[in-house]
Amino acid sequence: MRKLVYFVATTLDGFIADENDGYEAFSFDGPEAVDLVAEFPEMIPTHVRGPLGIDGPNLRFDTVIMGRRTYDAGIPHGVISPYQHLRQLVASTSPEGAQGTEVEVVADPVAAIRELKARPGKDIWLPGGGRLAAALADEIDEVILKIHPLVFGAGIPLFGPLGAPRRLSVTNRRVYDSGFSIVRATWS
Predict the structure, then answer these.
(1) What integer is the mean pLDDT of 60-81?
(2) Do 66 and 126 form a contact (C-beta atoms < 8 A)?
(3) Per-residue model confidence (pLDDT) at position 188
(4) Is the bond leading into 129 cis (omega within 30 degrees of zero)?
(5) Has residue 49 got a pLDDT over 90?
(6) Of 10, 15, 41, whose CA–CA distance to 145 is shortest?
(7) Which of 161, 144, 158 lies closest to 32 in space, CA to CA?
(8) DSSP string of the chain?
(9) Amino acid 86: pLDDT
(10) Is 46 exposed, middle or buried (0-12, 13-18, 19+ CB in 10 A)?
(11) pLDDT tier at 130, thresholds 50, 70, 90
C-alpha cells in the first residue's frame, strides 16, 4: 500500500521556513546532500535536475502534495511546475492556488490522499507546509526530517495545530559531522 511521507527540512526549533516563508538558510551540500539525492532523487525540482546531472528514475515517490504557500515559493522565480517528474497536487481552497497546467488543485487533501492510497503506485511526498501536515496528520505514515543545525526563533512550524500532542517512534537516525541529521519516525 502507498504511504504518505512527510519529508521536510526543519530547524532544531521546529520551523520549516522563516517568518517570510523563506527557506534559503537551509543549505544543501556536503555528504548529506549526496546521500539524500541518491536515496530520493525525485525531491530535486525538475528545473535543477539537469544542471545537477540527475536523470534517473523516481525511486520512492511518484506524487507530491504541497500546501499553497510551499507551491507559491517558486512562482517569483518563474517555477510554476516544480516537480514535473511527479504528479503534482496543491492543496488550496481557491482555484487560483496553482498556475502550472501540470499542477492539480485539490480542495480536500484528506479525500485526495485517501483516494491515492487506494490506487497502486509509489509513495506520496508531502514537502510542506505545516498547516497541511496537521490537516493530513492521520494520513501520514512516515515522517522524515532533514534537521539542520539552525534556529529561526519564529516562522512556519513543522506542524500547525494538532489539537493534542502526538508521539512519534524514531525508526532511524543519521547524524553527519556538520550537525545535519536525518530522522525517520512513525506515529506511536
Answers:
(1) 92
(2) yes
(3) 93
(4) yes
(5) yes
(6) 10
(7) 144
(8) ---EEEEEEEETTSEEE-TTS--TTS---SHHHHHHHHH-GGGS-HHHHTTTT-----SSEEEEEEEHHHHHTTGGGT-SSTTTTSEEEEE-SSGGG---TTEEEES-HHHHHHHHHTS-SSEEEE---HHHHHHTGGGEEEEEEEEES---SSSEESS---SS---EEEEEEEE-TTS-EEEEEEE-
(9) 97
(10) middle
(11) very high
Q: Which amino acid is at 173?
A: R
Within 8 A by CB and 6+ apart from 148, the residues are 9, 10, 11, 12, 25, 26, 27, 179, 180
Question: Quick one: pLDDT band at residue 67, thresholds 50, 70, 90?
Answer: very high
Joined together, the cell numbers standing for residue 137 give 496528520
Residue among 144, 74, 65 at smallest CA distance from 108: 65
136: its cell numbers: 493530513
- 4-21 pLDDT, tens digit per residue, is 999 999 999 999 999 998
Mean local confidence (pLDDT), 113-132: 97
Does residue 119 contact residue 2 with C-beta atoms inside 8 Å? Answer: yes
